[in-house]
């Protein structure tokens, strides 16, 4: 009989051949399949009916041309993507990323992660992801609007409240969702609020959605620390990034008594031994759309570094909230040597496999993104609930729901790891708990 190990490596080798040149997708799949070996040993029926092969193959992949004209009258042609990965649990759900690094492999890795993340939220949402290799940096507001309108002119026919519900991700925030929604409404002649999440508050958006990914990651971290008899109160925290996820992770961490000792963007990192002035940072990043070096010019006690790495700072907790593979083995070793005991991923797959291995071996408590950053998409699902019932909830109520969802995700990861004799391994806990719910639904729905 073929062992579960052989079975899984067989699937993986085929996947490598069929999806050549997509290293991030390979990485995301490899991590999940590694966890599934243990599941298949206990429950071999999860390999029945081609379940694993079907899970790794998107239900649909849409690639399209996005032409647009810049302010200086040049024609630009970008590529648009929407990967509708799995809808066994609900409509496809996941963000849109606008960044020059975007390609099919990146969108597939993000879409694949989203399946398990969305399953972990306990809410009825499938997994999908999309975006474009468009670079919003330095573009005028009018250029962003024209790009979003062109992008939606193709995407609108593939999405809908019951079909696929995009949201934001890197490079797509409230402004972009506004332009995308406007064009969708114009093309469909319907005010279908449930088609996108992350909307403005007066036209179907939800309170707490902006804060949700960062707040959620911190709720998860605090829950994980509580299990080990500690808390964020008095802790030193490194937060990489300075986008939406990072800013609200910093805000909540400091609210809970932590000191945020550093943050970053692609131009460098800032050391803040006395904590971060969140209002100032929000103004610089959100309103003025400037770089983090500006922060040190407008405050005292902070230093900007264009070289080196934010991971060289001393801290108790690290929250990578920037982008995939930003934290490698060398960085992980620095963190361990400097006393970090907890790492929770606010971004999607920010730690490389080498980094995760170092955390595991060194006894660092590590929360993978698909669990720790699920608060954003969970609150998107709460936005969908409010849209479906034509209602809007208070900040306090929505925040309570988010808090409860994050605690439940932590408990599920913790318990599942224990069930499989891997106590404290939240990677295995998240992958297996996320997988089982989707797998049961797929088996019940037949070979489709
Ligand atoms: N882009 C976010 C994520 O990675 C949010 C997706 C959503 O709200 O649909 O989960």
UniProtKB/TrEMBL annotation:
It holds the Pfam family ELFV_dehydrog_N. GO terms for molecular function: glutamate dehydrogenase (NADP+) activity. Residues 206-446 form the Glutamate/phenylalanine/leucine/valine/L-tryptophan dehydrogenase C-terminal domain. Gene3D superfamilies: Glutamate Dehydrogenase, chain A, domain 3, Leucine Dehydrogenase, chain A, domain 1, NAD(P)-binding Rossmann-like Domain. The keyword Oxidoreductase applies. The keyword Oxidoreductase applies. Keywords: Oxidoreductase. Homohexamer. NCBIfam families: PRK09414.1. Belongs to the Glu/Leu/Phe/Val dehydrogenases family. This is Glutamate dehydrogenase. It comes from Corynebacterium breve. The lineage of its organism: Bacteria, Bacillati, Actinomycetota, Actinomycetes, Mycobacteriales.
């Amino acid at each position: 009989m073929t062992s579960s190990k052989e079975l899984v490596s067989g699937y993986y080798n085929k996947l490598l051949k069929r999806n050549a040149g997509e290293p991030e997708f390979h990485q995301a799949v490899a991590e999940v399949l590694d966890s599934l070996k243990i599941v298949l040993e206990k429950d071999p029926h999860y390999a029945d009916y081609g379940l694993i092969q079907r899970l790794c193959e998107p239900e649909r992949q849409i690639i399209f041309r996005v032409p647009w004209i810049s302010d200086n009258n040049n024609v630009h042609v970008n590529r648009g993507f929407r990967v509708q990965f799995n809808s066994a649990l609900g409509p496809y759900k996941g963000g849109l990323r606008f960044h020059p690094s975007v390609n099919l492999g990146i969108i597939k890795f993000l879409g694949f992660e989203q399946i398990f993340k969305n399953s972990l939220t306990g809410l009825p949402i499938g997994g999908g992801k999309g975006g474009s290799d468009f670079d919003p940096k330095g573009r005028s507001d009018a250029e962003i609007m024209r790009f979003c309108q062109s992008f939606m002119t193709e995407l609108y026919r593939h999405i809908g409240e019951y079909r696929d519900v995009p949201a934001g991700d890197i490079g797509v925030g409230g402004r972009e969702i506004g332009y995308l929604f406007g064009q969708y409404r114009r093309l469909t002649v319907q005010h279908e609020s449930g088609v996108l999440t992350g909307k403005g508050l007066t036209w179907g958006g939800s309170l707490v959605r902006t804060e949700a990914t960062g707040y959620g990651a911190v709720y998860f971290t605090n829950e994980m620390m509580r299990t080990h008899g500690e808390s964020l109160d008095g802790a030193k925290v490194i937060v990489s990034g300075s986008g939406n996820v990072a800013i609200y992770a910093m805000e909540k961490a400091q609210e809970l008594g932590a000191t945020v000792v550093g943050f970053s963007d692609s131009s460098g990192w800032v050391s803040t031994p006395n904590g971060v002035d969140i209002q100032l940072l929000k103004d610089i990043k959100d309103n003025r759309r400037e770089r983090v070096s500006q922060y040190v010019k407008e405050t005292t006690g902070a230093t900007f570094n264009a070289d080196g790495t934010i991971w060289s700072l001393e801290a108790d907790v690290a929250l990578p909230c920037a982008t995939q593979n930003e934290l490698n083995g060398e960085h992980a070793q620095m963190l361990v040597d400097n006393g970090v005991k907890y790492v929770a991923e606010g971004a999607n797959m920010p730690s490389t496999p080498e980094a995760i291995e170092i955390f595991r071996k060194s006894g660092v408590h590590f929360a993978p993104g698909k669990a720790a950053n699920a608060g954003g998409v969970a609150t998107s699902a709460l936005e969908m609930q409010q849209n479906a019932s034509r209602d809007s909830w208070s900040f306090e109520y929505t925040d309570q729901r988010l808090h409860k969802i994050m605690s439940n995700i932590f408990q599920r990861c913790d318990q599942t790891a224990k069930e499989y004799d891997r106590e404290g391994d939240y990677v295995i806990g998240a992958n297996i708990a996320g997988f089982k719910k989707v797998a049961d639904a797929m088996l019940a729905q037949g070979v489709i």
